[in-house]
Design brief:
Blueprint lengths: L2 E11 L4 E9 L2 E6 L4 E6 L4 E4 L1 E6 L15 H10 L2 E9 L6 H12 L6 E2 L2 E3 L5 H12 L4 E5 L8 H13 L3 E5 L3 H13 L8 H4 L2 H18 L3 E3 L5 H12 L4 E5 L1 H5 L24 H13 L2 E4 L35 H11 L5 H15 L17 E11 L16 E11 L2 E5 L2 E2 L40
Parallel strand pairs: 1-4, 1-5, 6-7, 7-8, 7-9, 9-10, 10-11, 11-12, 12-13, 13-14
Antiparallel strand pairs: 1-2, 2-3, 5-15, 15-16, 16-17, 17-18
Helix pairs in contact: 4-7, 7-8, 8-10
């Protein structure tokens, strides 16, 4: 069989297997896995690792923050940076503004993404105002292939528990997954005022202002709401040992609960917030950075499978008056934009500190970086694996190259991981058989990436937890969870 492109001589890794083979690609799909394949075009992958392209499932691109501030990265710079970090696909957020219809929200993000992205993309729909007409629009969102929502339990854009239950129920009915930012709003605002009112206003006080207890309380509540509705739930950016334990326990109970953590909670600590002057502002993100004990516990949970994905939570705001200091330089920590970049560093850091240092194996790395996201967000097996018939979304890595982290390809003026020694970097990245990055050079054009119509979340392996009160067999026949 003739192929458009053959990747020859590499070591292939999926979420379950590592083996030597060539990959033959035709019409953007993997057509053949075998030996001695021929094609019009050939990439020599001798000595390289060939893996499913990363899927970045938590990043903020061309999105206004809660403060109304636009991220530094648009879909062009954001997707380019993602590709240089080994990603073939990403799923940023489309954020509903209070009062805005879902149709208008999605049209806004289509306009931001379609002309600019160099890799394939979809969105998670952030719901901030789930009024009855918005809930009525949601079935149409699934028809469009957008099958995940996100809600906040804090910020002005938070939802009530009742609204959260409504969203979980609609998502479950349509096979969707609800993501949640879990921190207790009143605990945070009370702590922040208690600190700032007493003059503790420097960036480092962002950490005590958001205690781990606020995350633990909200995760526990969110899991309870998920269990009540028997609806799948992804707890994003888990940053505490107790939060991770709650996710692990819920999963052991059979609940449809999934967890995500992020590199910043594995490689940075709250002491980074205490850098001289206002440099600590670089490290203001939410939930906040914790400590080295937390890092060890989170790694243990990664290794044992508590977390399905490790995502960057790339939320890029420059260290200038367009970003972190848009409310002025000498302001208290509450007025500094929240978030840090990391879309390009996520996979190299996880490879270097995870695979090279023996904390996880190569197949776990593939699962955490691509396959599990594809399954949970309704893209598997078209994406997230190396299989015949799958999209040729492929990252070719040099597992031995060592670099000191410096400038990235995003639109940022700092890299929070700058100076770290990182071994293992992607050299060539394909989306649907098309080179996006070729031997370290960008070759794709804005708009080359396409929208991915997603399907139902894959919940295999979990049983759900039907409560007696919601089960007609044990609640006198009341059918309430259709
Ligand atoms: N939550 C996120 O998920 N990203 C950036 C800031 C935040 O609070
Ligand atoms: Zn969040
Ligand atoms: Zn985020």
């Amino acid at each position: 069989m003739q192929h458009d492109l053959v990747i020859k001589g590499g070591t292939l890794a999926t979420a379950s297997e590592t083996f030597s083979a060539d990959i033959g690609i035709r019409d953007g799909k993997i057509a053949t896995l075998g030996h001695d394949l021929s094609g019009e075009d050939v990439i020599d992958a001798t000595g390289k690792l060939v893996m499913p392209g990363g899927i970045e499932a938590h990043c903020h691109i061309a999105q206004e923050s809660g403060m109304g501030l636009m991220t530094s990265d648009d879909y062009e710079s954001g997707s380019i940076s993602a590709a240089f970090g080994g990603n073939s696909c990403f799923v940023p957020f489309a954020a509903q503004k209070p009062g805005q219809s879902v149709a208008d929200t999605l049209a806004t993000y289509d306009g931001r993404a379609a002309p600019k992205s160099v890799i394939d993309y979809s969105y998670h729909l952030i719901l901030t105002d789930p009024n009855p007409s918005v809930l009525d629009e949601l079935p149409g969102v699934f028809d469009r292939g957008i099958t995940s929502f996100k809600v906040f339990m804090t910020y002005a854009t938070r939802v009530s528990d009742a609204q959260f239950l409504d969203i979980l129920t609609v998502a479950r009915r349509h096979g969707g997954l609800t993501m949640v930012h879990a921190e207790n709003h009143d605990m945070l605002t009370w702590m922040a005022s208690a600190l700032a009112d007493n003059g503790y206003t420097e960036p480092k006080y962002h950490a005590p202002a958001r205690p781990g207890l606020a995350e633990e309380e909200a995760i526990n509540r969110a899991i309870s709401l998920s269990k009540l509705t028997n609806a799948p739930l992804m707890i994003v950016h888990v940053s505490t040992p107790k939060g991770a334990e709650l996710v692990a326990q819920a999963r052991a109970d059979g609940a449809y609960v999934f967890g995500e953590t992020c590199p910043q909670y594995l490689f940075l600590t709250k002491h980074d917030l205490d850098r001289p002057g206002m440099e600590g502002a670089k490290y203001i993100c939410s939930p906040p950075l914790r400590d080295t004990h937390t890092q060890e516990v989170l790694w243990r949970h990664i290794a044992r499978g508590t977390f399905s994905v490790v995502s960057s939570d790339h939320a890029p705001f420059r260290l200038d008056d367009t970003g972190k200091f848009s409310n002025g330089r000498d302001v208290d920590f509450r007025k500094i934009a929240n978030g840090m970049p990391g879309i390009e560093m996520r996979l190299p850091m996880m490879f270097s500190e995870g695979v090279v240092k023996g904390r996880i194996n190569l197949n776990q790395f593939v699962a955490l970086s691509s396959t599990n996201a594809a399954r949970l967000y309704g893209m598997h097996p078209t994406k997230g694996t190396l299989a015949i018939g799958a999209d040729a979304d492929i990252a070719i890595w040099d597992p031995t190259e060592t670099r000191i982290a410096g400038d990235m390809h995003d639109a940022m003026d700092y890299n929070p991981f700058e100076g770290m020694e990182v071994t293992g970097w992607p050299v060539t990245v394909l989306t649907r058989g098309r080179r996006v990055v070729d031997q370290g050079e960008l070759v794709a054009k804005p708009g080359d990436g396409g929208f991915v119509k997603r399907g139902r979340s894959d919940l295999s392996g979990l049983t759900g937890t039907r409560l007696p009160e919601t089960d007609p067999a044990t609640n006198f026949g009341a059918e309430i969870l259709r």
